[in-house]
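Query protein
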Amino acid sequence: MRTNIVLDSQLIDRAMNLSGHKTMRALINEALKEYIKRQEIKQLTEFKGSNVWEGDLNEMRSSNYAETY
């Protein structure tokens, strides 16, 4: 996808030096991938513990439970 945007040149220079990428395209693509990964991790950590299971594994492992369901 082609697009025109105005970016902070100091940020781009710093990121290019730190990343070692030779093109701005590679730098921006990596930055977007990293952003997506961090947001997905953030969403997973927010979800953690929100769906607490209250079942009984010992009961489920019994043959009576399997026959009931």
